[in-house]
Amino acid sequence: MTLQAVFVDRDGTLGGNGHFIHPRNFELYPYSLEALQLLKEHGIPIIALTNQHNISKGRATELDFRNEFDSYGFDAAYICPHEPEDGCVCHKPQPGMLQQAATDLGLDLTRCAVIGDVGSTDMLAAAAVGARRILVETGWGMQSLDKYRHLWYEQAEPDYIAKDLLDAAKWLVSIKKRTTPE
C-alpha cells in the first residue's frame, strides 16, 4: 500500500497542551518539525486536520492557522471553525474535512493516515473513512487510552500507539519502506 498523505492534528499532537493556544503563542514539541520533515523526505504529503472552534468566537482567524501551518511546511490544511454543537459535517469526529481533502486532492482515504491525540475525535474520524489510525500519547493521548477509552476504542482501535509525533512518523516511514516495491 502506498501512503498517499498523512493528516496531522494540531493541539496535543504537534505541540501545545491539548487546549486552544493562539498561533502566535503556540509552541511545537521539540521533535515536531523533525517528524514533519521525515515524512516529507519520504515523499509523504502532510495535511493539517484541526478543530478550532475559537475561530467562531473571534479569538483567532482561519488565516492565523493557515499561516502557522504554512510556516511548518504543511502541504494543505483543513480547519473546522465551528462549535461542536453546530452540527456541521467538518467537526471531528465527523469525517467532513477528510472527505473534502479527498475531493480536493484526489486522495483515496484508505491509503492515508491520521495522527492525533484524541480517540473520540481524531481516531473516530479516521475510522469513518477507513484511514490508518495513529494515536500519540502526548496531549490528551494517555487520557484517551485510559479514562476515555470506552467512548471510542471499540469503533476506532489505533493501528499504532506512538509515544509522540516523531515516533508516529518513523512508524509510517517504516511501513512505507516495507510496502514499496524496489
Automatic annotation (TrEMBL):
<dbReference type="Pfam" id="PF13242">
    <property type="entry name" value="Hydrolase_like"/>
</dbReference>
<keyword id="KW-0963">Cytoplasm</keyword>
<protein>
    <recommendedName>
        <fullName>D,D-heptose 1,7-bisphosphate phosphatase</fullName>
        <ecNumber>3.1.3.-</ecNumber>
    </recommendedName>
</protein>
<keyword id="KW-0119">Carbohydrate metabolism</keyword>
<dbReference type="InterPro" id="IPR004446">
    <property type="entry name" value="Heptose_bisP_phosphatase"/>
</dbReference>
<keyword id="KW-0378">Hydrolase</keyword>
<dbReference type="InterPro" id="IPR036412">
    <property type="entry name" value="HAD-like_sf"/>
</dbReference>
<comment type="similarity">
    <text>Belongs to the gmhB family.</text>
</comment>
<dbReference type="InterPro" id="IPR006549">
    <property type="entry name" value="HAD-SF_hydro_IIIA"/>
</dbReference>
<dbReference type="InterPro" id="IPR023214">
    <property type="entry name" value="HAD_sf"/>
</dbReference>
